[in-house]
Amino acid sequence: MSDSTRSPLVRVEPLGTSFEAPDSLTILEAAGFANLRLPRSCRNGTCRTCLCKMTTGRVRYTIEWPGLSREEKTEGYILPCVAIAETDVVIEAPEAVELPPR
Ligand code: FES
Fold it and tell me: Which stretch is the leader sequence (predicted)?
């Protein structure tokens, strides 16, 4: 059973850092609030700069047609700039960088 009183947790590998990803934020935005920089550019689901692999969890998208092929979706690739975590999620983002606290 998932605990519905808290936001889903996103863990970023290989850093091992986790942050809460509330329903109101995309994973990319939530990472930003957690001082974590993920690769990104367009932030609207077209450029695929942010493409990364989700090894665990489920997301939904803020746009109807995120720039992912069916095969990529099947293999677990997501676009964090337009993805909202529906469950706890683990992503592989080797280029993620932890920023100093603001
Ligand atoms: S930043 Fe362009 S697709 Fe995510």
Answer: none
Claim: this prediction has a pTM higher than 0.85 = yes
User: What does the pLDDT look like over 31-68, one tens digit per residue?
Assistant: 999 999 999 999 999 999 999 999 999 999 999 999 99
**Choices 3.30.420.40, 3.10.20.30, 2.60.40.10, 2.30.110.10: CATH for 9-98:** 3.10.20.30
Question: What residue ranges line ligand 1, CB within 6 angstroms?
Answer: 40-43, 45-50, 67, 79, 81
Per-domain boundaries in the chain: 9-98
Q: What is the 3-state secondary structure (H, E, C) of 38-93?
A: CCCCCCCCCCCCCCEEEEECCEEECCCCCCCCHHHHHHCEECHHHEEECCCEEEEC
Looking from the CA of residue 67, the nearest atom of ligand 1 is 3
Ligand 1: which atom is nearest the Cα of residue 82? 4
